[in-house]
Design brief:
Layout lengths: L5 E5 L6 E5 L3 E6 L2 H7 L4 E7 L3 E3 L4 E6 L2 E5 L6 E6 L5 E5 L13 E3 L24
Parallel strand pairs: 3-10
Antiparallel strand pairs: 1-2, 2-5, 3-4, 4-9, 6-7, 7-8, 8-9
């Protein structure tokens, strides 16, 4: 993908739309308890972009989901949209399922598999990390 390529997405109701430019990093599926609790899903797909490349059409609602991070969602329909960690001020993670074309960014790995639910099967061939990548 070229640096000029656009990554776009938004919430279910269309009230919040976002757009980012550039090559995404860390296209991953997270199995941690925080992601599960914040979304009600057994795991969450993410991609990381530079914060300064991400623009939104309307302000999402933000909440502190842990002592070290906050998450965004649409205040109208509740769609989970983003995650930003305090110790990574230049990055923002966008939920893969909120992308306009999530098929464009298949996950490259799974993180926090030590916390995955027992009935979630991991696909063969992708790296799996017990905790965060690099831990």
């Amino acid at each position: 993908m070229s640096m000029d390529a656009v990554i776009s997405g938004g919430c279910r109701c269309g009230a919040v739309r976002y757009e980012a430019r550039g090559e995404p990093r860390n296209v991953t599926v997270c199995h941690c308890a925080d992601c599960r609790g914040a979304t009600g899903a057994p795991m969450v797909g993410w991609l990381t972009v530079r914060r300064d490349s991400c623009r939104v059409t309307a302000d999402p609602a933000w909440f502190r989901s842990s002592p070290r991070a906050e998450r965004a969602f649409c205040p109208s329909c509740g769609t989970p949209l983003a995650y930003r960690a305090d110790d990574l001020p230049d990055e923002i993670d966008l939920t893969l399922a909120s992308l306009d074309d999530p098929e464009r960014f298949p996950p490259r790995d799974h993180v926090w598999v030590s916390r995955r639910l027992s009935w979630v099967a991991l696909p063969p061939g992708l790296p799996c990390y017990p905790q965060a990548r690099g831990s």
